[in-house]
Structure formats: structure tokens, C-alpha cells
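In full, the data.
>
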Amino acid sequence: MRTVPARRSIVISLFLCWMALSTTAGDAPEGAADTPPAPATEAEAAGTESPAPMVDDYLRVVEENRTLVPKTNTAGTRLPLTVQRTPASVVVVPEKVNDEQTNLVLGDVLHNVSGVQSHTNFGVHDYFMVRGFESLTASTVLTDLAPEPEATFYHMYNLERVEVIKGPGAFSYGANPLAGTVNLVRKQPLFDRFTQLEATGGSFGLGQLALDANGTATHRGLAFRINGLWREADGYRDDKDQEVRAFNPSIRWQIGAHHEVVFNAEIARAEYTPDAGLPFLQGAPADVDPETSYALPTDLSEQDVTRLRVDYQYRAPAGWVLRNRTYFNELDWQSAGTIYTAVAPGPTGSLNLLRLQTHLDDHQKFSGNQLEFSWSRQGAVDQVFLVGLELRRETDVFDLRQFGAQPSANFPVPFMPIDLLQPQEFYTAAPTYPVGGPTLSDSTRETLALYAVDHLRFGSRWDLIIGARFDRVDYEADISLDLGGLQVPARIDRRDEEVSPFLGLVFAPNERLSFYMNAATAFAPPSTLALDQAEPEESEQNEFGAKLSLLDGRLSASTAIYQLERQNILIPDETGVTGQNGDQRSRGLEMDLIASLDGGWSLLANFAFIDAELTRLSQLDAFGIWEDLSGNEPAFVPERSAGLWLAKAFDNGWLLNGGVRHVGDRYVSVLNRDVADAFTLFDAGIGYRHKQWQAMVNFKNLGDEFYLTRGTNTPLVSAAIPGNGFETRARLGVKF
């Protein structure tokens, strides 16, 4: 098995750190001890595009987060472009919005973005839909432009902003961003001294403490920052406790005027109780209290997450930039979660919900290195060019099993029943009777990638961005599947080579208005569960849009129309066999508006229309009969959704805000049998700021509206998780 990418990552990082250290004497002359680090380049000071989107640009990001309307992004093309001149649908949610809404996790933030619907997966990690495509197999989550194993909650305690790029992103980030990319921009060390403490409390037993402390040794070119988080909550639904602990120290070392290294480490421990939701009965969720849980008392989810990063940047006096990013992410996940198998009559005429418990032992590691070179020139045609090499190694070892109760003469099947309408739990111990065989996998994916992005500006009106990435993916896996009672071992060894192009064009008749178009493709390697020689999944998009910037950049509006298609979707049928039986198409219209208005008013608004269709879908049902579901809609994709957030800041320090969010009807599964009704939620908040103190109280779901989010689906039972009822979150913070 080849391990070259991981080893080369370490070698490259050590070499670059040695190079930085060896040049310290030459770049830091005597007498510079009290001199602060060099400011941003002239291009950055002027707010124009620059070829160095790492730490120097971060200073601009920090300044933007103090306002409502961000003007730049780096995730859209890897180049630091203004949002107005980026030929793609990009929405940036700054820290200011998260603070005023007391957002806790990524799912809270994504409510502010058109065409994105946020849910959870079993209630234990973030899960979202982008333009009708689910995130686990069609989107990529990045932390500071490095890929994440997407099976955890992403907490807001250490984030400056969230960048959402809709559409294929493989030309920048390789496999998996078939429909969208979410980049989490973390807080970085600053040459400043401050400490910020926050305490949050609220409904459902919520208690949270957060720390943000920054220090500096300017004469040594050092800055360091520590972010910490502790949270406990009981959850809206019965027996849904959670506890989160996270710690994120980082160090920034500026070596003279041209070299910089940033070290970043983050560890997190998350304990949640899984949630399978409310089962559907005759087309509607069970008529019980929405807080009712049918989960076994031994359900658990324990996740340990580690993120390690070393970023190095050399900015040459001639204007070119060399950047190296080494990353290591690890996820250790132990879980046991209830699933529903059927609803059946009980011996006394009641309805029983039959259950099993699924056990997962999953260990994922992502390691890699991104080496980038960028340069710019000005002339008749201004140009910014970036070329990069990425080496990546991903391993995933998991063991998935199902357990039930020991069959008896009175109940000869292993399913654990519970009364559907009057639940009373009798199974207090963890089930140990195996149901079927295990699903085992030990896989390694190694990627060698070359990518390039070229930004050409013709005068003041036209921008052309051309990007492409070549990925060579070597995949090896030893797997074992239970297929109808037969344990089938298999060995997979394959190589995929893919080129992912991007073409974007911007026409700006003036500073305030721009029109754009883009065309792009993306790919995703076949799943571990694909036993046959499956082809990579592919997506293709065409998009047209317009952007408007008014009030000196304090109002930004955008609209986009698109068609996004995905082919060769791997869909497990009702027997568990996985095949490439699906294609999906989404067509839609999106609008986003963010504004900081005179008189202390601020506004966020979004609207989306999505026409999503499974253009090809066939599968075996639970009785072995082929069914053609072509023409059905994907699960949990509303045709229409909209949101509005309005805030008023007063000169005396008071703040009032409120919002409304509407989501249309959605099917609960691809079978299109059960429907989750449309809902409209109203929120409000009041805050006060005085000197270094800040207080905020938010009231969410003022009408205590019943609504449903994504749950679990099995061959005979659909389920959905009720969203939180009326909720209060109060936060008190001090900065000194």
C-alpha cells in the first residue's frame, strides 16, 4: 500500500519550517524588536484582489467581521476576490450575525443562506441540503480550506465567518463537492492583547462557557490565541442529553517581513444521544407529544475530533507568494442508535413500533499537504495566477452491526417492541443478540492532485476565471458485507483519474452592478459499499446570476438561476445492495440580500425556488420486487423557502432584532409516500452593549410551531425529528 502522500506532507512541512528558521537572521535586523509586523500589501490596503489569501488577508477578514456586509471571500476560487466579482453564488455569514442570533453550530448559521436546508443526521452531527443535494455525498466542509471528515457538529466558538459556495467545487478541492462547499474560517492569532469570556444559558438545560484569549510578543514576531468551549444541554426531546468540550490553541510567528508560520491545534469531545425521530403512520407522524422518544436507553454517540495544522507563507518582494498548508484531521466515533423496522399490531390491539439498535465503531484520518504558488501582474490585462499541488491520504476503518433482543417462544423475532401511542420502555440493558452479519471496511484513499486558477481582468468591466484540477485517486479497501444472510468479503483496488474544469465570466458595467455565468463539473469516487466496478459519481452545472452593491458596499444583493445534474448516484435498495441506480437534476432560482442601513438598521433576506427531480431511480423493495421511482422528488427538499432577519441598533447601546423563516412541504423519503408539512417560524431578540460588556437574549420559535427535520428511513418505516419548540437563549459576554 502506498503511503507516499502522508510522508511527503511531513517532509515538505519540516523543510519549509527549516527554511523559515534559517532566514530569520537575514529578515529580522537588529533594532526591529519593537517594530510591529509588516502591514498588508498596498493591494490589500486598497481592498483589491491580492494573490495571498492566507494570514495577511485574515486581517481584512477580521475587520469585515466587525461589520455586517463582507466584501471578500477566498473559498470560491482559492483567490481573494471580492464577492461582487466572483462568478459564483457565494454567501458569507460573518461573526456579527452569529453573535446576534446566538448560533451554536453550523446548522444554525445555514438558515441564513438561500437554497440550503440544515438538518442533523440521527441528531448527532450537522447535515444539510445544497440546491436539493444532501451534504454527506455531495458537498465538502472545509476548515480554513482543508477538508473535513463530515460526521460531526461544527461549533461556532472559534469561527470568524462561514463561507458557502454553491455549485461544483472540484476544480479547487477535488473529490466530493458535487453541489457545494462550506468553508469554516477560524479565528487566528492577532498582534493584540485581549480576553473575551461568554456565558450562555437557556431552554432545555442549555449551559455554555466560551473563552477567546489573545496575546502577543511583538518584539519576537509572535502572537498566540486560545479558544475554548464547554456546553451541556438536555435537548428538546426526551433523553437527548449532550456535552461538548473543545480547545483550540494557535500560534502565529512572523519571521521578518516576508515569512510567516501559523500552528493550529484543535481537540474536541462531543457526547450526544442519537435521535431517530417520530415514526410516520398512515402518512403523518405519530400523534404523540413531539418530545416523545422511542430510543433505547443505551443509545449513545461519542466523538473525539483532532485537527492539526501548519501554515507557512513566503511573500517575495517581487510580489509572488509561496504557501504551504499541512493538515491532519482525525475522528474517532463510537455510537449505538435505535432504528425502526416496522409498525405491527400488539397482542392487546395496540400498535407496536419494532426496533433494533445499530452499533458503529468508526475511525477516520485525513492527512495531506497543499503547496501553492501564486503571482500577479498588471498591464493591459491584469492577471492573478495560482498553481498548486495537493497530496492527501484518507483512511476509514469501521465496524457496523445490528443487535436485537433474544427471540423467545412468546416473541420469536429479535425486534424490540414499544407501544407507539403510549410508550413504556422495557428494554433497559443494551441488546446483545446479533441480527444479520456485520458490515466491515478498512479503506485507504490516496490522492495526487494538480490544480490551477487563472484570473484575468480586461479593463474595468470584464473578469475571466479559468480553473482546472487533475486528481489521481488510488483506492484500496477490504470489506465484508451481509447480503441476505450471506457474509460476502471483497477486495477493492482501483485508480480513478479525473479532470474537473471551471469557467467563470463576469461583466460589470459599473461598480455597483455585475452579471456572471459559470460552468463546472465535479466528481466523487464510488462508495466503499459499491461492490461492482462502479464509475465515479459526476455533477455538472450551468449558472447565471447578477450582483448588486449599493450604499458604499453596505448593501449586497445577488440572484442566481441554475441547473445542476448529478449522475451515477449509489443508492442502497431495500435489501442493502448498493448500485448506481440514480440520477438527479435540480433547477432553481436563489436570491440573497444583506445590508447595513442608515440609522442602525441591518437586514438579511433570502429566497429559494428548487425544482428537484430524481430523473432515474430504480430499486428492489423489501419484497424483492423492482420498483421504478423515476420522477420522484428527493427527500426533504422544499420547492420554496425564504428567510428574513431585521435588527435595529440604538445609540444608547440597545439592540432589537427579529426574524421569520418559511420552509415549504417536503417528502420524507424518496418513496414520496409521507409528507412533512410546511412551517413558518418567528424569532425575536433584545441586546445591550455597554463598554466592554454585551448581553443578548433571543427567543426562537415564538409560536411554538411544530415542524419536522430529517430523520431516519428503513424499508417499512419513515421517520422525522421534530424541531425545537419555543426556546430562549441568553448570553452575557465581557471583553478586556
